[in-house]
């Protein structure tokens, strides 16, 4: 109620507000001030509902490298370690869930006041849910679906029509349509994909033929009969750009411009000239081999409410603790005479009130700028794995939300455009080759629970890529230009009023999946035995995405489980040595 009132008031006054969220990690400068107990983001623990994960085709999982085996339930007497995870994005949350399921003790330390990292959202003072970015779930997000099923929230995903929709200027909407039925029977992979690419009106006939030639001679064909072999071939293509690969296989420039560039921007915020062929073909092999992989799903509301809060509930219900506003400023460590380094603690908390925390195992589940700031400089010199991380860079991106007083994408019925009682228009992720935003959606339609508001219309969420030229623009200028381009696409929007906007700029978001970058992605296991990495930028076979982050968390947790016996005995040995040293320090005659 309050939410709607705030919004209506803003609308009545015709107010336009700007919310800027410059995402930055905390400064690594450590002051030696007083230490305080960190606030745990409190929520009552409750019984967690579990969803039926088979509903999203988990049986279709293609490769072990993309969906690791479940660990065995913990054996009696198996070591249960205390784990400190730095970073409360999906990778950190996924690591925590896996370890809690094994009975481990887990604390998450997140620098911001909310969890979720790049998938987070927050509510502004007027009740608007501001997202860090537009998030879409492909049908091949097997690790994320599994995580959501554990937390009982698979039902929060709304399945969209099995089409990828391209919006060209002046209301010209064209589909890449994967729906394929013969005599009422659904036809699946790979035929539905062939049909989609052969029939799409987004491409001219010659471009369609060239497209088919390129895809037909790609490792995707091998993946149909030999998924592991196909994946190996795809990994080997990391050194070339998608454009180079595509053109050398007969593809045409025009199909890059009209179709593949918007898709590449949506996947990696890069165009086809700058994204690696590995990145694009990883997704396409799923699309070609699994019927539902290309089906798009979107949350029914905001990520904070519909995805992250349930995961946090799951974590707390199992005794995990989530500390927010608890950025890690420094990793403390010691190096033994034999050169082995061991983390001894973390300095976390707000500037001037840092606290020293200790655990058996430490995980840095960070983004690229975060890990670069956190790693002790000496580790770079000592270990190549850490040094290579500094070759990775983040891509800037801008997300704009625009609220209208009607339905922007309703191209068929003019009366519906103005009818604010029911949402109308295109209910799917939308791509465009004609605007500076590559993908967008009307959240009031796609994710109505938090975003449809009676008396208000579309909430367009547009992702601007490449964002570099616009990072220095004012938010008002960005909103005005985005609004202009929305109207350029949709004649239906031309008589409407934009009533509100917000702009979120992220100066370093996904790691740049440019040719050759895969080499620099670190393994979850590191040369420091009790220090592990997670994060979508770390080595995992999926692209930088929610699925990649979740997978990296699983891989990280399983590496910890594998190392647990050695880590436990090392920790016990250290404790025994410390106890002996303490006993030797007791002055003669003192009571012990
Ligand atoms: C605009 C946009 C749109 C996107 N769209 C999609 C999509 O449609 N589909 C999809 O699958 N993916 C999408 N993604 C990608 C997806 O959001 C990310 O790949 C994923 O969320 C990364 O998760 P992560 O946990 O690896 O990293 P992050 O989410 O970056 O989490 C890292 C966390 O570490 C915290 N941190 C950093 N330093 C410290 C420190 N020193 N101490 C404590 N905490 C620290 C950060 O605050 C952050 O919470 C999109 C991303 C963006 C930006």
From TrEMBL:
Residue span, Amine oxidase domain: 90-561
TM region(s), chain numbering: none
Primary residence: plastid
Keyword DNA damage: no
GO biological process per UniProt: carotenoid biosynthetic process
Pathway(s) served: Carotenoid biosynthesis; lycopene biosynthesis
GO cellular component terms, A-Z: chloroplast; chromoplast
UniProt EC number: 1.3.5.6
Reaction catalysis annotation: 9,9'-di-cis-zeta-carotene + 2 a quinone = 7,7',9,9'-tetra-cis-lycopene + 2 a quinol
Keywords for this protein: Carotenoid biosynthesis, Chloroplast, Chromoplast, Oxidoreductase, Plastid
UniProt-listed Pfam families: Amino_oxidase
Localisation: Plastid, Chloroplast; Plastid, Chromoplast
Domain of life: Eukaryota
GO molecular function per UniProt: 9,9'-di-cis-zeta-carotene desaturase activity
PANTHER family to which the protein is assigned, alphabetical: PROTOPORPHYRINOGEN OXIDASE, ZETA-CAROTENE DESATURASE, CHLOROPLASTIC_CHROMOPLASTIC
Similarity comment: family membership: Belongs to the zeta carotene desaturase family.
Cited function: Catalyzes the conversion of zeta-carotene to lycopene via the intermediary of neurosporene.
UniProt-recorded name of the protein: Zeta-carotene desaturase
Organism: Astrephomene gubernaculifera
């Amino acid at each position: 109620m309050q939410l709607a009132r705030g919004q209506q008031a803003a609308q009545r006054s015709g107010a336009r507000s700007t919310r800027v969220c410059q995402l930055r990690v905390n400064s690594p400068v450590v002051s030696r001030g007083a230490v305080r107990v960190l606030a745990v983001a409190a929520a009552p623990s409750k019984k967690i509902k579990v969803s039926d994960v088979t509903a999203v085709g988990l049986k279709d999982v293609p490769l072990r490298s993309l969906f690791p085996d479940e660990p065995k339930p913990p054996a009696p007497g198996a070591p249960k370690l205390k784990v400190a995870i730095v970073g409360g994005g999906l990778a950190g949350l996924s690591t925590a869930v896996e370890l809690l399921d094994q009975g481990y003790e887990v604390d998450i330390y997140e620098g911001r006041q909310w969890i979720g990292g790049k998938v987070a959202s927050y509510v502004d003072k007027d009740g608007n849910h501001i997202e860090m970015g537009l998030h879409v779930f492909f049908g091949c997000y097997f690790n994320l679906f599994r995580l959501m099923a554990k937390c009982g929230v698979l039902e929060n995903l709304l399945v969209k029509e099995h089409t990828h929709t391209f919006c060209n200027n002046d209301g010209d909407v064209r589909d890449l349509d994967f729906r394929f039925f013969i005599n009422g029977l659904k036809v699946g992979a790979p035929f539905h994909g062939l049909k989609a690419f052969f029939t799409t009106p987004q491409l001219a006939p010659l471009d369609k033929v060239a497209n088919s030639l390129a895809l037909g001679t790609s490792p995707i064909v091998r993946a149909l009969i030999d998924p592991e072999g196909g994946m190996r071939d795809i990994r080997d293509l990391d050194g070339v750009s998608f454009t180079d690969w595509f053109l050398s296989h007969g593809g045409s420039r025009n199909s890059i411009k009209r179709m593949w560039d918007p898709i590449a921007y949506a996947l990696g915020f890069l165009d086809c000239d700058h994204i690696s062929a590995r990145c694009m073909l990883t997704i396409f092999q799923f699309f070609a081999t699994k019927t539902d992989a290309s089906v798009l799903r979107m949350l029914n509301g905001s990520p904070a409410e519909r995805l992250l809060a349930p995961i946090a509930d799951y974590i707390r219900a199992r005794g995990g603790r989530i500390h927010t506003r608890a950025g890690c400023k420094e990793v403390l460590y010691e190096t033994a005479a034999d050169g082995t380094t061991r983390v001894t603690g973390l300095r976390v908390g707000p500037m001037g009130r840092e606290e020293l925390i200790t655990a058996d195992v430490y995980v840095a589940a960070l983004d690229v700028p975060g890990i670069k700031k956190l790693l002790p400089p000496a580790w770079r010199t000592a270990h190549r794995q850490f040094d290579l991380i500094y070759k990775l860079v983040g891509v800037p991106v801008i997300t704009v939300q625009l609220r209208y007083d009607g339905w922007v994408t309703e191209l068929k019925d003019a009366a519906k455009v103005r009818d604010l009682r029911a949402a109308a228009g295109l209910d799917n992720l939308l791509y465009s080759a004609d605007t500076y935003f590559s993908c967008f959606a009307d959240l009031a339609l796609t994710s109505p629970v938090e975003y449809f508001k009676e008396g208000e219309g579309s909430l367009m969420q547009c992702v601007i890529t490449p964002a570099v030229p616009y990072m220095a623009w004012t938010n008002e200028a960005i909103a005005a230009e985005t609004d202009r381009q929305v109207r350029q696409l949709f004649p239906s929007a031309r008589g409407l009023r934009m009533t509100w906007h917000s702009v979120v700029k992220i100066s370093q978001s996904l790691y740049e999946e440019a040719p050759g970058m895969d080499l620099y992605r670190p393994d979850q296991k590191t040369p420091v035995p009790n220090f592990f990495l997670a994060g979508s930028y770390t080595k995992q076979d999926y692209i930088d995405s929610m699925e990649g982050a979740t997978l990296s968390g699983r891989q990280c947790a399983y590496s910890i489980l594998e190392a647990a016996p050695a880590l436990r005995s090392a920790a016990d040995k250290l404790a025994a040595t410390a106890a002996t040293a303490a006993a030797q320090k007791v002055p003669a005659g003192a009571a012990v």
